[in-house]
Amino acid sequence: MVRIGILGAGGRMGRAIAEAATGAGAIVAGGIDRGGVVHGDRASPDALAAASDVLVDFTAPGALQVHLDAAAKAGTPIVVGTTGLTPAHFEAVAAAAGRVAVLQTANTSLGVNLLGALVEEAARRLGPDWDVEIVEMHHRHKLDTPSGTALLLGGAANRGRGAADGAALNRLDRMQEGPHGREEGGIYYASLRGGSVAGDHQVIFAGEGERIELGHRAESRAIFARGAVKAALWLAGRPAGRYTMIDVLGL
């Protein structure tokens, strides 16, 4: 059985991943959090990586480099579900992927990643004449805006429109820029925060006289945990390289 080490085991996602791993027949090799050992007796990322077949990281951006280093040192594949990453973090992920298998994603939900594939295809077929708006809502405690998932969906729309850079057409500062006309081909975002919403995302393609709305609603964090475990089981034993949930789904 695959041994999964959980980084961020004390958080809500960490606890859900431990439960999902057990339900999937995997072994929880251990889990640590910034407060110390949460599960087992592995007191450091290095020790946990050495004892695991694959790591799952749902922590904070500031901890990512240490966790990538531990995974690369032990040769242990790692699933990175941490959001709020900067370009420097993505460079670190790319560097680690030269030494070990790394699957980095803003959302481990299988449904969200299938939605991304649909958004990419819709953007490709409809073209820049259709305006794209992405609306997301999360619980009141979520700090990053737009959400990583919204950016994932925007990246899919960018690819569908032929942009080499997944953020090329993103327009994030509508409120800060003041009144101005909508840019043709631009992909605009709106973020809502409140209550205990696990995650709602809607991609709106608005054309002349008609509208297409593609969306996903997360009713429980369990869907992210199950997706993370599916990704971890798929990634275990893979050669060094950078992978995504699209690879897990076989799309």
Question: What would you note in describing this structure?
Answer:
The protein is α/β, with parallel strands linked by helices and 251 residues long. It folds into two domains: 3-104 and 222-249, Rossmann fold; 110-218, Dihydrodipicolinate Reductase, domain 2 (2-Layer Sandwich), CATH 3.30.360. Helix content is 37%, strand content 26%. The protein contains nine helices and twelve strands. It has helices spanning 12-23, 45-50, 64-74, 87-96, 110-126, 148-160, 174-177, 222-235, 245-249; strands at residues 3-7, 27-33, 36-39, 54-57, 78-80, 101-104, 131-138, 170-171, 187-193, 199-207, 210-218, 241-243. The strands form two sheets. It has a seven-stranded mixed β-sheet, sandwiched between helices. Strands 8-9-7-10-11 form a five-stranded mixed β-sheet, with helices on one face. Helix 4 links the parallel strand 5 (78-80) and strand 6 (101-104). Helix 1 (12-23) crosses helix 8 (222-235) and helix 3 (64-74) runs parallel beside helix 4 (87-96). It is elongated and about 60 Å long.
Quick summary of this structure?
This protein is of the alpha/beta class. About 35% of the residues lie in helices and about 25% in strands.
Note the topology.
Elements: E1 3-7, H1 12-23, E2 27-33, E3 36-39, H2 45-50, E4 54-57, H3 64-74, E5 78-80, H4 87-96, E6 101-104, H5 110-126, E7 131-138, H6 148-160, E8 170-171, H7 174-177, E9 187-193, E10 199-207, E11 210-218, H8 222-235, E12 241-243, H9 245-249
Parallel strand pairs: 1-2, 1-4, 4-5, 5-6, 6-12, 7-9, 8-9
Antiparallel strand pairs: 2-3, 7-10, 10-11
Helix pairs in contact: 1-8, 3-4, 5-6
